[in-house]
Design goal:
It is built from 10 helices and no strands. With 212 residues, the chain is mostly helical. It comes from Streptomyces malaysiensis subsp. samsunensis. This is TenA family protein. InterPro entries: Haem_Oase-like_multi-hlx (IPR016084).
């Protein structure tokens, strides 16, 4: 007799069509094939650096709303990583990249930060955990595939993909799944699904904005 699905497993199942759409994004396809242009990746560096600031705010809100010490410490570590390791990556990659981002790059991609911050204000800790689980599940899946079977260019692009395919990132996604599984039963699964699929849809719009 099969065990019942956990909340995180039910989310992945319910959102599978949107996840598959996200995995077919032009950005994912071109990075995996090694065909993304210098200009388009320059824009990605600009817009993703801006979203890292948003992710820092999301984890900071999760620190405030953490239900226990484990969750508090995990989100505090995430804030530290985002403001050190990831900030360093973007500073170095943008400085070394052969072309600058187009002037309107960050503005074109505001949709993801706007969605995530609005949902976080509405739903607090449960919304943050659900949205981050969606975003990081997407990145773990496509980056693992690209790292293992793609033709990702050497240098900054390969380093970024590898960062989202390593064991530490995989463990982080697993921890997010555990946080989602531990959310109170009084919180309807349908609400989690709305946050999860909404984040994936915003991720699609965000990555499509790379191309103008």
């Amino acid at each position: 007799m099969a065990l019942p699905l956990s909340r995180s497993e039910r989310l992945l199942k319910a959102a599978a069509p949107v996840m598959e759409q996200a995995l077919r994004m032009r950005f994912v396809t071109e990075v995996t094939a090694g065909t993304i242009s210098d200009t388009d990746y320059a824009d990605y560096l600009e817009i993703e650096a801006a979203f890292v600031e948003t992710a820092t705010r999301l984890h900071g809100l999760a620190v405030w709303g953490a239900p226990d010490r484990t969750a508090l410490e995990r989100n505090a570590r995430a804030v530290h990583a985002l403001t050190t390791t990831q900030a360093d990556y973007f500073r170095d990659a943008r400085a070394a990249w052969p072309v600058p981002a187009r002037p309107d790059a960050a503005r074109r991609a505001e949709v993801l930060s706007r969605y995530a911050l609005d949902a976080a204000r509405e739903g607090g800790y449960p919304a943050v955990m659900t949205m981050l689980f969606a975003a990081e599940s997407l990145y773990l899946t496509w980056c693992t595939r690209a790292h293992e079977r793609g033709a990702v260019p050497d240098g900054a692009i390969r380093a970024w993909v590898a960062l989202h395919a390593d064991q530490a990132f995989r463990d982080g996604v697993r921890a997010l799944a555990a946080e989602v599984d531990a959310l109170p039963d009084t919180l309807p699964q349908e609400q989690l699904t709305r946050w999860f699929t909404g984040m994936l849809e915003a991720e699609i719009a965000f990555h499509d904005a790379v191309f103008g």
